[in-house]
Amino acid sequence: xxxxxxxxxxxxxxxxxxxxxxxxxxxxxxxxxxxxxxxxxxxxxxxxxxxxxxxxxxxxxxxxxxxxxxxxxxxxxxxxxxxxxxxxxxxxxxxxxxxxxxxxxxxxxxxxxxxxxxxxxxxxxxxxxxxxxxxxxxxxxxxxxxxxxxxxxxxxxxxxxxxxxxxxxxxxxxxxxxxxxxxxxxxxxxxxxxxxxxxxxxxxxxxxxxxxxxxxxxxxxxxxxxxxxxxxxxxxxxxxxxxxxxxxxxxxxxxxxxxxxxxxxxxxxxxxxxxxxxxxxxxxxxxxxxxxxxxx
Length: 296
Hints:
Elements: H1 4-15, H2 19-26, H3 30-44, E1 49-50, E2 56-57, H4 59-81, E3 92-98, H5 100-104, H6 107-118, E4 120-126, H7 133-137, E5 143-146, E6 155-169, H8 171-177, H9 184-189, E7 192-194, H10 201-207, E8 217-219, H11 223-232, E9 237-240, H12 245-250, E10 254-255, E11 262-271, H13 275-289
Parallel strand pairs: 3-4, 3-5, 7-8
Antiparallel strand pairs: 1-2, 5-11, 6-9, 6-10, 6-11
């Protein structure tokens, strides 16, 4: 039988990225948390964590984390069905990984009513849409929004639609770098702005036009900062259409290739046995995103 005090200690260490913060969340001493992890490892007969500045779960640790995530959600369903078990506990907290551009555009409008109705608190983990699924594979989130359609074992995926990106720059930047016109070669030679090391959207955009290989770019891991740098003339970048309609209307940003938008599909991944709460959230997101994302 599982000892859920031990599993809760494992979940807290991974979710809080360390033993000290896990101890604070659990109301225990750091040594007590460490002892619970050691006892869990003794019971399963192998390490559940790779110790480091940021502890990471081992393969068996990931399986245990996936299990405890789903148990939490199923317990919430049961307490709602059996009033005697409901002891007035705090609202459920869901850890969800999503990309920064979704957070900066459609996410808040899509989930606010749901969170209020179902007494849900969110803990959002921001990851690039290309790699968000690793958080589910690692067992430290209950769901994620990412650009990958294939779910991890034990999970389901749902196509939400696509975010449309457009290549934009400020008028001054265009005058400096594209006076002879916008071509694949001139795009590759002008400084670009890239969200982070896992963001290959600009790379794919250039490659689709035959401009493969290295190009100069700034790194800016902030959706708002990305827009500000582009508006200031630091570089050109692929920006969500949802985020810059006013800037396009005012002329502060201009399209480089209006005929070449790029659509990034987004998928919602959630645990198959995640309980009714995740099922309700999934249905809610499906309805909400139908109005704001590009549909096939």
